[in-house]
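Human:
I keep going back and forth on a fold encoding question. Comparing notes only helps if you start from a blank page. Show me how you would write down a chain together with its backbone fold. Write it directly below this note and I will take it from there.

Assistant:
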Amino acid sequence: MATRRRFIRNTVVAGAAITAGVPAFSTGRAAKRTSNRPASRLRKFRSKAVEDTIREIESFLGDTELAWLFGNCFPNTLDTTVNFSVKENKPDTFVITGDINAMWLRDSTAQVWPYISLTAGDADLKELIAGVINRQVKCIHIDPYANAFNDGPGQSEWMSDLTDMKPELHERKWEIDSLCYPVRLAHGYWKATGDTSVFDAAWASAMNLIIKTFRQQQRKDEPGPYRFQRVTGWQTDTVAGGGFGNPVNPVGLIVSIFRPSDDAAIWPFLIPSNYFAVKSLRQIAEIASAVIRDEALAAEAAALAGEVETALVKYARAIHPQHGEVIPYETDGYYNYNFMDDANVPSLLSMPYLGTIDRNDPLYLRTRSFVLSKSNPYYFSGIGGHGVGSPHTGLNRIWPIAITMRALTASNDYDIVSSLKMLANTHAATGFMHESFLKDDPTRYTRKWFAWANTLFGELVLETYRTKPELLKEI
């Protein structure tokens, strides 16, 4: 997401221009609610299951702001970002993030994840998601260290980065989660559909590449083959230590040079991403054993998961003066810690959503209390809202993704209702979620077309409708 820095400067102004004449924090309730979706003929993909779900929830909610927002946001990935085809007799789906014409392994998984539960009644949707899995496998084979890809060989503004760039790459920032999200998608797809066709030889080879890359980035004997530097005025867009990052003690954790925000880490053991790696490795082991009968792959994945988990218990907990024992955001294996959280996922806040910790675990609850407090330097509160932001967008900017994640990881109804109300009141009359908004003026936002934030909001509404529909009536 470092490439998005250019959009921060532009879309703040654009956001203000779009909403000229609209009172601050207006949700547009006075205006006639007409769909903000593209015309039907201009939509990239149509899913009967998704359309039926939209109609069902809109009927339940009636003529409300929440119904209008859901109808705009939930299908946004399908409406605007997917390009489906069949290549080499297999489905292939390239998914852009929105206002950047490139596919992130992280974003592409997150964008289609909420649709997995609807595949039982929609063969075309099922094939679309299988295509995402197949394309992600191709990307991993091109370069397991890259985070974002072009649709085939092309050009990127980052071709001059001091790293091993290839024509197929949009950007080459090493982030643990870039290799975890494709595993999450494949495992979730399998569990929902029972389809094992995606687990072919190419998939198994990609999983072996993931394990190899994780092993390299444990840095037990040497820093490994990856290094990155960029000529830039943004400090978080380049890497210290000659491109290898700050030093680490090789204790078994995995180095992530960049965060999921695409910002450089301070201490290279990014803790929520290491938790995510443990989860993903165990999912690889499960599929390897149950589906493709590759016991060597299963054993290797399980062994690495156990090793990282053991290191997390020893090196990824610390005593905070106000909150007691919590999970820090980063460490280096030398007992230096970064007490913060970033809005982007994986984050400390999002760990139960990703299945890496129980939402009622006392360790998580203490960590959550820290994250959602002034003890977290990137927690902001203003007259427009409150929530977690990111160094990526600077101070005083709150991320709708983090507000949504607060609700999706909640153990009480208040967090769900208050988060939904805040999201309904901070979209600046656009009908869509954004990357971030200014805490005292939501009309000053970044990224007017950010499909992940839109679809994740849709996931929250759908999940609430399925589990506690009465809460939606309170919005």
User: Anything to note?
Assistant: The first helix runs from residue 5 to 18. The two ends are 32 Å apart (CA to CA).
